[in-house]
Write a structure and sequence with these properties.
39% of the residues lie in helices and 20% in strands. It is globular and about 60 Å long. It has 2 domains: 2-144, Nucleotidyltransferase, domain 5 (2-Layer Sandwich), CATH 3.30.420.40; 194-381, 2-Layer Sandwich (Nucleotidyltransferase, domain 5), CATH 3.30.420.40. The strands form 2 sheets. An 8-stranded mixed beta sheet has the order 5-4-3-2-1-6-8-7, with helices on both faces. A 6-stranded mixed beta sheet has the order 11-10-9-12-14-13, sandwiched between helices. It is of the alpha/beta class and 393 residues long. The termini are close together. The chain binds adenosine-5'-diphosphate. The site of adenosine-5'-diphosphate has 13 residues, from helix 10 and helix 12.
Length: 393
């Protein structure tokens, strides 16, 4: 049975087609620069990667080309073979605690949450509408990035601000990267072979978040009302003292939008190092003993260690700590620096195992006598979306 997993952005559309329940990827691809000049798409099938220039004027055109490629490459003989399409949706607000079959009401809800995710939710709706029109017989399922974190309790998701900010305006911590935290924590529970267990998941990518998961349910996470909160990220600041914003506005005459942009796009590792938001570039500078890049690295590690320590206590001890996403999967030195700081809890890194595990490998990176096992688990948000979509068939 064939299921599509879709992630639609404002100018991009990524997809994977799975044979379910085997979870075999039959074809995958990305449409880029939709609605812009020089648009193109890449398709990966049987290890072959094909890039094609194409005029992708909107998401509907991209979906039509996708379907044509599926037919021409004989992945499907007709559209009715596609039984479900799972869509990544960034914001489900407080209403959606799990994936749902998309109805007109769900579409209206996703649109109405656009104030909370102005860059993402409208694009997600465009993707959904294009697939409903193109493949009307398939079940369309919305998989929310926020849903996994809906199990947090009020005392964890509220900010200490007037309560009516929450009741009137929805000001609260929502958390993001939910599909990744869910995938990695479920995978780790299976590895541990324990139904009841406490897991800390460190999703360290360009964006980054950490979550505390008890018995498969999220109890706390670092991202907040928006994905800007929490740990230091590639180009986002993570937690800061909010008073910096009015102070800077007065000092520089910059508008709130300009400062917002700088906190989003020019801060984090990029802002601190002055080099790049990408760890590979910063590492190259560290090799040249660039002081600012070295400091940025320490600051990044500090922010992660701080949250691991907090969640260790909140959970009352942990059964596993997991690293995932671009940095978590591929940067052994970051993992080593983090775990070395946890030595006071008896958590120890196995240096040679840690150095070996990268580029898509999974495994344990802690020593045998470490009080808590540490794992690298490559994330797979796409399969999580396909699983959720498949579950409704
Ligand atoms: P996102 O999904 O948030 O865009 P990813 O999870 O794909 O991000 O992570 C991308 C980041 O991972 C890059 O910006 C880079 O900092 C880091 N990264 C990727 N490969 C490596 C590597 N080999 N060594 C160090 N860092 C890496």
């Amino acid at each position: 049975m064939k299921v599509l997993s879709v992630n639609a952005g404002s100018s991009s559309l990524k997809f994977q087609m799975y044979e379910m329940p085997e979870e075999k990827v039959l074809i995958s691809g990305t449409f880029e620069r939709i609605g812009l000049e020089n648009s193109f798409y890449t398709i990966k099938i049987n290890e072959d990667k094909i890039k094609k220039e194409s005029n992708l004027s909107n998401h509907e055109v991209a979906v039509q080309i996708l379907i044509r490629e599926l037919l021409e490459n004989q992945v499907i003989d007709n559209l009715d073979e596609i039984k479900a399409v799972g869509h990544r949706v960034v914001h489900g607000a407080s209403k959606y605690a799990s994936s749902v079959v998309i109805t007109e009401e769900v579409i209206q809800d996703i649109k109405s949450f656009s104030d909370l995710a102005p860059l993402h939710n409208p694009a997600n709706v465009m993707g959904i509408c294009a697939f409903i029109e193109a493949i009307p017989n398939a079940i369309q399922v919305a998989c929310f990035d926020t849903a996994f974190h809906q199990t947090m309790k009020e005392e964890r998701f509220l900010y200490a601000v007037p309560y009516e900010w929450y009741t009137k305006y929805g000001i609260r911590k929502y958390g993001f990267h939910g599909m990744s935290h869910k995938y990695v924590s479920e995978y780790t529970r299976e590895l541990l072979d324990k139904e009841f267990c406490n897991i800390i998941v460190c999703h360290l990518g360009n964006g980054g978040s950490i979550s505390a998961v008890r018995d498969g349910r999220c109890i706390d996470t670092t991202m907040g009302f928006t994905p800007n909160a929490g740990i230091v990220m590639g180009s986002r600041s993570g937690d800061i003292d909010y008073s910096i914003i009015p102070y800077l506005m007065k000092k520089t005459g910059k508008s709130i939008d300009e400062i917002d942009q700088e906190l989003n796009k020019k801060s984090g590792m990029l802002g601190l190092s002055g080099v790049s938001s990408d760890f590979r570039d910063i590492d190259a500078k560290i090799a040249e003993k660039d002081k600012q890049s070295i400091m940025a690295h320490y600051l990044y590690v500090n922010s992660i260690v701080g949250y691991i320590a907090k969640y260790y206590v909140e959970l009352g001890g942990v059964d596993a700590i997991c690293f995932t996403a671009g940095v978590g999967e591929n940067a052994p030195h970051v993992r080593r620096m983090v775990i070395d700081r946890l030595n006071c809890l008896g958590i120890k890194v196995d240096r040679s195992k840690n150095d070996e595990i990268r580029f898509g490998k999974e495994g344990i990176i802690s020593t045998e006598d470490s009080t808590v096992p540490c794992f690298v688990i490559p994330t797979n948000e796409e399969v999580m979306i396909a699983r959720d979509a498949y579950s409704f068939i």
